[in-house]
Amino acid sequence: MKKRASFTAVFLAILVTFVAGFPGIEAEAEAGVCEKALSDCLNDIMTQATAPFGPISCFIGYTFCKKYIDPSAAA
Amino acid sequence: MNGSRWTIGFALLWAAMGAAQPGIGREIISKITIEEVLSIGALDDEALFQWTGVAADPDGFIYVLDAMDYSLKKFDLRGALVKKTGGRGQGPGEFMIPRLLDASPNFIFATDQNVAGVYVFDRELNYRKKILCPSLIAHLKALGDDRVAVAAMSFQAPGKILVLNDDGKVLSEIAYLDGNPGILMDSISFIPDAAGSFYLAFLFQDRIEKWSSDGKRVWSRSLLGGKKSVTKKISSFSLPGETCFKDIALDRRGHVLVLGGHLSEAPSRTVFVLDLQGDLLTTFVLPDTSHCLYVDRRNYLYARANDGVTLKKYRILYE
């Protein structure tokens, strides 16, 4: 049960953390979570400072997020 | 008499070669079912937290990338943890955002989302080296101990699979994109076969394709009736939203297995089964949603359960 509680609390935190060092997002498995994370990633100062790798990493994170997240959460 | 002996001998040799090499010959199947043989990780244990990549070596040991604790883990055939390596960091063999995994006979290849390269570990999980890549990596497959194929994401040259040697030299490339269909529309999963061909599944397009080793499209198929991923505006970019196909694998009996995405009948659970000519043979449904599909050298299928807490291993049953 400990793991379930922990997992629920940080569910997708790492998955949608597109930028290394970016603080964990308190993301819920809700509609648009990948879009929100991508937007945050693209607008992050670290991303802009590390172009073009930074934005590319954001897009790779977005595609992975779209693969990983349950459809009911990503609709 | 001698002629017929030669004919029979040649026929036997051809049949033996076909049996030894997956993908040669056509098998008529009408149905596939899967039977769970192993489950690693549960909600009340510490085996896995949020796994992202899986691979198996020729002896059946299972390797898993776990994003939640930044690690690469090795499990034995019964699912017991043998060893764990990695850790959070940017040093050799450490991970910040572990993503993709594959195995050759003697090495394990792993990627980190923000690293333009492939980490190489031996089967004891000792870090050996990094294969440099020209760009960040969106998909990875091992072609042998000394070669990998990667889908390298790039704004300048989108839509390419690069074959790299273990020094990072580009040995060949496949440019699979038609024109410029838009950002992220080149996103693919791919799987190579023994002859050097590649089977591609497009993440945001209703397209499954086979490409020859010399970079020519062999066939292209649509499995979702031409459904299109609706685009959304995100920070000035128009990006596709729903996924078509999440992963692709080859079984040992010459079938292409394609994991459907959001637009398939059972989202992230429907598996389309094609023959090597691209004809749809049947479908089956995974018990739980998955982001990936992996078939090992012994023809066991691996997929996800419990949102990434659990790895399931299945026997594939053909009818």
Can you describe this structure?
The complex is a heterodimer of chains A (75) and B (319). Chain A has one domain (2-74). Chain A is elongated, with a radius of gyration of 13 Å. Chain A is built from five helices and no strands. Helix content of chain A is 60%, strand content 0%. In chain A, helix 2 (33-43) packs antiparallel against helix 4. Chain A has helices at 2-10, 33-43, 45-49, 53-68, 71-74. Residues 5-11 and 20-29 of chain A have low confidence and may be disordered. Chain A is an all-alpha fold and 75 residues long. The termini of chain A are far apart. By secondary structure, chain B is mainly beta. Chain B has one domain (30-318): Neuraminidase. Chain B is 6% helix and 47% strand. Chain B is built from one helix and 26 strands. In chain B, the strands form seven sheets. A four-stranded antiparallel beta sheet of chain B has the order 1-26-25-24, with no helix packed on it. In chain B, strands 2-3-4-5 form a four-stranded antiparallel beta sheet, with no helix packed on it. Chain B is globular, with a radius of gyration of 20 Å. The chains are: A mainly alpha (75), B mainly beta (319). The A-B interface holds A 1-4, 7, 10-11, 14-15, 17-21, 35, 38-39, 42-43, 52-53, 56-57, 59-64, 66-68, 70-72, 74-75 and B 43-46, 49-50, 52, 67-68, 90, 96-97, 99, 113-114, 116, 135-138, 153-155, 183-184, 187, 203, 232, 234-235, 237, 239, 241-243, 246-247, 261-262, 267-268, 289, 291-292, 307-309.
